[in-house]
């Protein structure tokens, strides 16, 4: 039986949602990895400014990342 326009639209929505969920999960993992790297850098003695310079971020953003914001 040929797919209807509704069936095609439903399948497109499902594909888009699935892709969104994958990307969202990957973003969360990357965010956690960045925070852990910043924490290790701080524990190694780097200042917030030095971490920021290495990451290309302002030191206040580094502080926010470390604070979980």
N-to-C span: 51 Å
Based on CA atoms alone, the radius of gyration comes out at 20 Å
Fraction in beta strands: under 5%
Shape: rod-shaped
> From N to C, what is the helix and strand string?
HHH
Mean pLDDT: 94
Overview of this structure, please?
- The protein is mainly α.
- It has a domain at 32-69.
- 80% of the residues lie in helices and 0% in strands.
- The chain is rod-shaped.
Give me the secondary-structure topology.
Layout lengths: L4 H39 L4 H8 L3 H8 L3
List keywords for this structure.
69 residues, mainly alpha
In short:
The chain is 80% helix and 0% strand. The chain is mainly alpha-helical and 69 residues long. Helix 2 packs across helix 3.
């Amino acid at each position: 039986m040929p797919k209807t326009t509704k069936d095609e639209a439903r399948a497109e929505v499902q594909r888009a949602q699935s892709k969104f969920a994958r990307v969202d999960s990957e973003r969360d993992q990357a965010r956690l990895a960045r925070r852990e790297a910043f924490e290790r850098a701080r524990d190694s003695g780097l200042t917030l400014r030095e971490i920021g310079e290495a990451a290309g971020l302002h030191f206040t953003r580094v502080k926010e990342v470390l604070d979980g914001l």
